[in-house]
């Protein structure tokens, strides 16, 4: 039985990856942080009483800022594969806690690599590092000739998060070259799901769509509506992570759909899913979206009502304007193909949030900061 260790197991990707690896017959260990309230909602369904026989899913308390703890867990677990998904992953929040992000997202990666080396597991343990399209920074001139970012495009990170992740990228590559370790970067473009954190823009929009349609929220406040993102489904992307670690040679891969959509169009798509048509008017901070038609008799929305406004507090000091990835290498070498397009992704998220809001789930709508 193969043994995997996942950092960030309580997050969106950690939960889907744990499901995938359990389906494949792995023994899955996860590292979770101790929190004053429960933070395991996304993985509770995988947990079996540890007193039972044949338990294939185990959790360990730990933190990417704590080397000795990481060394102890890795020594105990002796993993065949480590997926380093743990991170402070919110780009806007990284401007508020830049040092912490450097420590967790940057040095945390080093701590994992060093732990494997110190324990002499270089030959046994393969390591996946959660790198990101934020490394590119969205600079127009750095796209390839076809207009995409690929494995050879230059990096220009635009946030403390991106800068910390660039350290993680390079230290992973360096350990591969210096110590012949099987360590790979997946340069993943944005991926979402019904389990996406509620302060990331897609989930904020789909939650608000449900709450506004059901009369539980008046208005959705967003930042930059012009940003463009290449959005895929997290379920597809964890499959790519696994494939990256199954190759003969360790390499880095871009994982993306190759299609980009603006925040404004995602808002339009999300409300269309519940039969609400919007018209956007005004510019920059004064832009609003009004209801022009409500085609679902279940939802009582007044025509002309403003239900989306811009609040500049959600702007970032430096923005990544456009991301679009070229998945040619992953399609060719990994045989990876995304199953979801952005429309199917959006539809699944809205339907899931409608069910949650109908069940009186209010989420974090009142105090969203991201
Ligand atoms: P989430 O924010 O949903 O999950 C992050 C996970 O990291 C959580 O389990 C969190 O624990 C954990 N974590 C945070 N700080 C620490 C710490 N100090 N020590 C140990 N664990 C910690 O992120 P995603 O699942 O969306 O992303 C997974 C990884 O992929 C991240 O590294 C992210 O930066 C990267 N990435 C994500 C993309 C995306 O679009 N989703 C795209 C490209 C890269 P807790 O639950 O306790 O907060
Ligand atoms: P991103 O995701 O920064 O790309 O990082 P996010 O969903 O936070 O933002 C995407 C774009 O939407 C714009 N935006 C808003 N964003 C948020 N969060 N809230 C708003 O109200 C809002 N209004 C507009 C942003 O300015 C941005 O342009 C995600 C994270 O998962 C990272 O960890 C990961 O590395 C990258 O994706 C790839």
Describe this structure in words.
- With 370 residues, this protein is of the alpha/beta class.
- It folds into two domains: 3-188, NAD(P)-binding Rossmann-like Domain (Rossmann fold); 201-228 and 262-321 and 341-367, UDP-galactose 4-epimerase, domain 1 (Alpha-Beta Complex).
- 34% of the residues lie in helices and 18% in strands.
- The protein contains ten helices and 15 strands.
- The protein has helices at residues 12-23, 67-77, 91-94, 98-118, 160-179, 201-213, 234-244, 263-272, 328-334, 342-358; strands spanning 3-7, 27-32, 57-61, 81-84, 126-132, 183-188, 191-192, 220-222, 228-229, 232-233, 253-255, 261-262, 276-281, 288-294, 306-310.
- The strands form four sheets. The protein has a seven-stranded parallel β-sheet, sandwiched between helices. A four-stranded mixed β-sheet has the order 8-15-14-13. Strands 7-10 form a two-stranded parallel sheet.
- α6 runs parallel beside α8 (263-272).
- Bound molecules: NADPH dihydro-nicotinamide-adenine-dinucleotide phosphate and guanosine-5'-diphosphate-rhamnose.
- NADPH dihydro-nicotinamide-adenine-dinucleotide phosphate is lined by residues 7-14, 33, 35, 39, 63-65, 85-89, 104, 130, 132, 188, 190-191, 197.
